[in-house]
Amino acid sequence: MDSLPLYRQLAAHYVDAIHTGSLKQGDKLPSLRSLMRLHGISLSTALQLCRTMESDGWVEARDRSGYFVRRPRRLAIAPMEEPPAGVPPDPAQYVGIHAKVSDFVARRRQLPEKLNFSIARGAPELYPAEALRNAMTRMLRQQPDMLTVAAPLKGHRQFREVLAQRSLRVGMAISPEDILVTNGCIEALNLALRAVAQPGDTVAVESPTFYGLLQVLESLGMRALEIPTSPQTGLSIEALELAIRTYDNIKAVVVVPHLQNPLGSVMPDTHKARLAQLCERHEIPLIEDDTYSELVDAPTPPRALKSWDAGGNVIHCASLHKILAPGLRLGWIAAGRWHARVEMLKYAQTRNNEGLSQSGAGLFMATGAYDRHLRHLRGCLKTQREQTADAIAGYFPAGTRINLPPGGLQLWVELPGRLSSSRVFDAALAERIVVAPGTLFSNSSRFDHYLRINCGWPYGEAVDTGLRRLGQIIETLMSRGAGAAAAQLPVRPMSPPAPIQPPQARRSQSSSARAA
C-alpha cells in the first residue's frame, strides 16, 4: 500500500469507509480545502483523490456542491428471476453428476491454479487458529491420554453439551444425548439418507443444489428429484406440493434453508413452518442441512427448520467446516425418531470420531470468544461479498445478473446471453483461473449459463485482476457467439495487477452501461 501514490492511498481510505458504512450513499466527501487540511496535501492531490474515486464509481460530482457517495454499482444489476413452480419436475433427470464432477476436479488439477473462485470457504486468516490450538493444547494437558483412548461413539460429551446449549438460540430443544458427532456435514447427510431411504428411492432436492449432495445420492443408488428453488426464499413449497401429488414415491426432502448453496437464499419462517407441516402430513422425512446459518448477517442466527418439528420428522445436520475451521471435519446430526438407526449406521460405517478436535472446539465454543469470532467473520465476509459484487458489476458484460445473499461465502451469477459456463470454465482454466460452472449444481442442463463465485478470500489486487480478466473472457466468448469453441480463445497471461483495491470503472461507452 505504501508504494501507491498518495492520492491512491487516500482514495483507498475513503473506499474502506464506504465499505464499513462510515460513509453511506448520499453522504458528502470532505471539501477539497478540508481534504487538504485533514491530510496535509496539495490541491492537486486532493483533486486527484476525488477524481479517482469518481472514475472508479464510488462517488459522483454535483455542480457547485462537491463529491457525494453514489449508489453502489452492484445494486444496479438486475435481480434474478423466480423459477417456475407450476411444472412437475422432469422424471428423467435423476442421475449423472459423478462424471461431471470428476471431470471438473481432474481438469482443475492439471494446471497449478493462480486464482480459485470455485471453492466455498473462507481464507485461513479468517479463522481463530491460535485460539483453537491453545484450546487443544490445554485439553491435552488436562487429559494426556486423549490421543490413546477412543472417544465415545456419540462424540465428546462437552462438545455435545455446547451444541445442545447453542441449539436453544435457534429454537431447538435437544439434549446432548440427541446429538451424534460426524465427520463433517457430508457424513451427517449420508447417514440421514441411508436411515430413511433405500437404493432406487426418490429424494426431493433443491434445484440448483450443492453437487456434493447429488454425488451422495448417486453413490447410494438414489434418485434426485429436483424442485425449483427461489434465489430469495429457497425451495418452492408449491412446486414440492405438486411433486408430492405427481409422484407417490418421494422418500425424503433435503433442503438448505439458510444461505442455500449455491443460490444464497434464506427461507422465511413462514416457509419453514409450511415445509415442516407439509412433510409431517405426508410422512416424508425432512433433512435439514444447516451448515451456513451462523453466516447470515443478523445479530442472532435464524430459527432452525427443526424448531417446527412436532414429531421428530426433521433430521438436523450441521458442521463447523465453514464457520470455525475448514481443517476440522466436525459435524453432527440430531436425527429425531431415526436416532437409534443413525447411531447404528454410524457405528457400522465409520465408528467413533477422534476426540481432540471435539474437545478443543467445545472448549473454545463455550467462551465469548466464539461469538466474537462469528461477528468478525460475518463482517469480513460481508465486505468481501460487496467488493466482489461491485467488481462483477463493473467488469462483466451488460445483461449479467447476480443474487446478493444476506450473508455467506459466495455469489450466484447468471451470464448474459445464456453463455455456457462450461466454455467460460475452459477458457478461464487455460489462464489458471478456476470457477465453478453451473452444470455442477444440477443433473439437468438448466444452469449451464451460471457461475458460482467464491467471496471467502480478502479482496485485493490479485482478486480484482482475476475478476477483471474473467469479465474479459466472458465478453470475448460472447462476441464470438455462443457456438464458438472455448478452445479457440487466445490464451493471454494475466496482466500485472493494477495498483488499486477497488475495481476500476470501465471507460468505453458500451461498458459504462453495465453498471446501469
Automatic annotation (TrEMBL):
<dbReference type="InterPro" id="IPR036388">
    <property type="entry name" value="WH-like_DNA-bd_sf"/>
</dbReference>
<keyword id="KW-0805">Transcription regulation</keyword>
<dbReference type="InterPro" id="IPR051446">
    <property type="entry name" value="HTH_trans_reg/aminotransferase"/>
</dbReference>
<dbReference type="InterPro" id="IPR036390">
    <property type="entry name" value="WH_DNA-bd_sf"/>
</dbReference>
<dbReference type="GO" id="GO:0003677">
    <property type="term" value="F:DNA binding"/>
</dbReference>
<feature type="compositionally biased region" description="Pro residues">
    <location>
        <begin position="493"/>
        <end position="502"/>
    </location>
</feature>
<dbReference type="GO" id="GO:0003700">
    <property type="term" value="F:DNA-binding transcription factor activity"/>
</dbReference>
<keyword id="KW-0032">Aminotransferase</keyword>
<dbReference type="GO" id="GO:0030170">
    <property type="term" value="F:pyridoxal phosphate binding"/>
</dbReference>
<keyword id="KW-0808">Transferase</keyword>
<dbReference type="Pfam" id="PF00155">
    <property type="entry name" value="Aminotran_1_2"/>
</dbReference>
<feature type="compositionally biased region" description="Low complexity">
    <location>
        <begin position="503"/>
        <end position="516"/>
    </location>
</feature>
<dbReference type="InterPro" id="IPR015421">
    <property type="entry name" value="PyrdxlP-dep_Trfase_major"/>
</dbReference>
<comment type="similarity">
    <text>In the C-terminal section; belongs to the class-I pyridoxal-phosphate-dependent aminotransferase family.</text>
</comment>
<keyword id="KW-0238">DNA-binding</keyword>
<keyword id="KW-0804">Transcription</keyword>
<dbReference type="InterPro" id="IPR004839">
    <property type="entry name" value="Aminotransferase_I/II_large"/>
</dbReference>
<dbReference type="GO" id="GO:0008483">
    <property type="term" value="F:transaminase activity"/>
</dbReference>
<dbReference type="InterPro" id="IPR000524">
    <property type="entry name" value="Tscrpt_reg_HTH_GntR"/>
</dbReference>
<keyword id="KW-0663">Pyridoxal phosphate</keyword>
<dbReference type="InterPro" id="IPR015424">
    <property type="entry name" value="PyrdxlP-dep_Trfase"/>
</dbReference>
<protein>
    <submittedName>
        <fullName>PLP-dependent aminotransferase family protein</fullName>
    </submittedName>
</protein>
<feature type="region of interest" description="Disordered">
    <location>
        <begin position="490"/>
        <end position="516"/>
    </location>
</feature>
<dbReference type="InterPro" id="IPR015422">
    <property type="entry name" value="PyrdxlP-dep_Trfase_small"/>
</dbReference>
<dbReference type="Pfam" id="PF00392">
    <property type="entry name" value="GntR"/>
</dbReference>
<feature type="domain" description="HTH gntR-type">
    <location>
        <begin position="4"/>
        <end position="72"/>
    </location>
</feature>
